[in-house]
Amino acid sequence: MTCLSELRGLGDVHRRLEAQGGQVIAVSVDAPSESRDVVERLDLPFDILSDVDAAVVRQFGLLHAGGNPHGGDTTVPAMFLIGREGEVLWRRIAQRIQDRPDPREILDVIERLTAAAP
């Protein structure tokens, strides 16, 4: 699960991503009702996928078993840039749970990839 400040930051860059043909998909292990509440409370311009059984989180190798303060499972903070064909073009996976990626970083990556494209 991304923290609330990351989600706010993703909301700030969402329109720029959308203008470049991208979209934000946030993934959380929280229940759908909790994810909806966060979207509404933060007025996010994108949805949060509720991955309550952590299937997507496991596929990307981001499960941090027993990592939340109450001993439950949580996720390692990460961001991915996935291409139109489903290929991972870039990833930023935190080394520690407190190491949170800056959402603006993805815009810099898109600019570099666009500049390098033939």
Please specify the SSE layout and strand pairing.
Layout lengths: L3 H16 L6 E3 L3 H11 L5 E3 L4 H5 L3 E2 L9 E2 L2 E5 L5 E6 L11 H12 L2
Parallel strand pairs: 1-2
Antiparallel strand pairs: 3-4, 5-6
Characterization of the model:
The protein is 37% helix and 18% strand. The protein is built from four helices and six strands. It has helices at residues 4-19, 32-42, 55-59, 105-116, and strands at residues 26-28, 48-50, 63-64, 74-75, 78-82, 88-93. Strands 1-2 form a two-stranded parallel sheet. Strands 3-4 form a two-stranded antiparallel sheet. The chain has a two-stranded antiparallel ribbon with strand order 5-6. The radius of gyration is 14 Å and the shape is globular.
List keywords for this structure.
118 residues, alpha+beta, Glutaredoxin, two-stranded parallel ribbon, two-stranded antiparallel ribbon, 4 helices, 6 strands, 37% helix, 18% strand, globular
Briefly say what this structure is.
By secondary structure, the chain is α+β, with helices and mostly antiparallel strands.
Strand arrangement across the biggest beta sheet: 1-2
Strand coverage percent: 15-25%
Largest sheet properties: 2 strands, parallel
CATH superfamily label: Glutaredoxin
CATH domain class name: Alpha Beta
Q: What class would the helix/strand composition place it in?
A: alpha+beta
